[in-house]
Specification:
Helix content: 40-55%
Number of domains: 2
Low-confidence stretches: none
Strand order of the largest sheet: 4-3-1-2-9-10
Bound molecules: D-glutamic acid
Order of helices and strands: EHEHEHHEHEHHEHHEHEHHEHE
Distance between the termini: 20 Å
Largest sheet: 6 strands, parallel
Radius of gyration: 18 Å
Strand content: 15-25%
Mean pLDDT: 96
CATH topology of the largest domain: Rossmann fold
Structural class: alpha/beta
Number of helices: 13
């Protein structure tokens, strides 16, 4: 029997590392397994059915590694698959395990930040299509207007480590301009894709200076710390031997090299089929 119960962190690729980094810093004693489905990234341009299928496969893989708790560190999968994973998959697979997403904590954070009550969301086509941010923000803060902009080129830029050059800048400026062209009163922008913090330098360069940028990593980490404090039963099951494992569905050397650059520490990864 597998005695380790790491916290599972899953993304379509390198994006979830921006969440992993903050969570691992907030909870250094815990064990973690990261899974990047790099072979099938990006998810954001795929159909609802395909995103669900890929997410369920990733969740099953992480459960098989002993995880009791999984963070879906991907907005697209959180938007398109999380509800069905929680309401349909978990009750039959194992009702005691938990799968959490990244959208709800980000939405909770937005209410205290915006003054103009106009919030921008930058995300993948899948996240924008799902309207999850509009629905979730309206539930908590009906007075806030949400303006969305899909940025389909941004995930490929990150996956190919094209983070800071003229080509990347062209696409970053184009989508930010398109967001503000929809409503110039936006005073808060949610980076609604975990890949985007890798592009933060150029994003900050092109955002109007008065705009507050909400980056998910720290928000999700705070929310997880709070969740574990409130759910002692789950917390108790998570093992705390400071182990870190990285899995990718693509080439493990490539993953290790790029993840090492992103995290600024040596990452050794293993290739898996899910
Ligand atoms: N990091 C994922 C997200 O937060 C990117 C999805 C994709 O692969 O397109 O949405």
């Amino acid at each position: 029997m597998n005695k380790t119960s790491p916290i599972g962190i899953f993304d379509s690729g390198y994006g979830g590392l921006t969440v992993y980094q903050e969570i691992a810093e907030a909870l250094p004693d815990y064990d973690f397994i990261y899974l990047g489905d790099n072979a099938r990234t990006p998810y954001g341009t795929r159909s609802f059915e395909v995103i669900y299928q890929y997410t369920e496969e990733a969740v099953k893989f992480l459960f098989e590694q002993g995880c009791q708790l999984i963070i879906i560190a991907c907005n697209t999968a959180s938007a398109e698959a999380l509800r069905n994973i929680q309401q349909k998959f978990l009750p039959t697979y194992d009702p005691n395990r938990r799968v959490l997403g990244v959208i709800r904590p980000s939405v909770e954070a937005v209410g205290s930040v915006t003054k103009s009550k106009v919030v921008g969301v930058l995300g993948t086509e899948g996240t924008v299509r799902s309207e999850s941010y509009i629905l979730e923000i309206n539930k908590l803060f009906p007075e806030i207007e949400v303006i969305q902009q899909a940025c389909p080129m941004w995930v490929p830029l990150v996956e190919n480590h094209e983070l800071d050059n003229d080509g990347a800048e062209f696409f970053i400026k184009r989508e930010i301009d398109a967001l503000f062209a929809q409503n110039s009163l936006i005073d808060t922008v949610i980076l609604g894709c975990t890949h985007y913090p890798h592009l933060i330098k150029l994003i900050k360069k092109h955002l109007p200076q008065h705009v507050t940028l909400l980056v998910q990593g720290a928000i999700v980490a705070d929310s997880l710390v709070d969740y574990l404090q409130r759910h002692g039963d789950i917390n108790q099951l998570c093992t705390k031997d400071r182990k870190r494992q990285f899995f990718t569905t693509e080439n493990s050397d490539n993953f290790g090299k790029k993840a090492s650059l992103f995290l600024r520490k040596k990452v050794e990864a293993e290739t898996v089929t899910i």
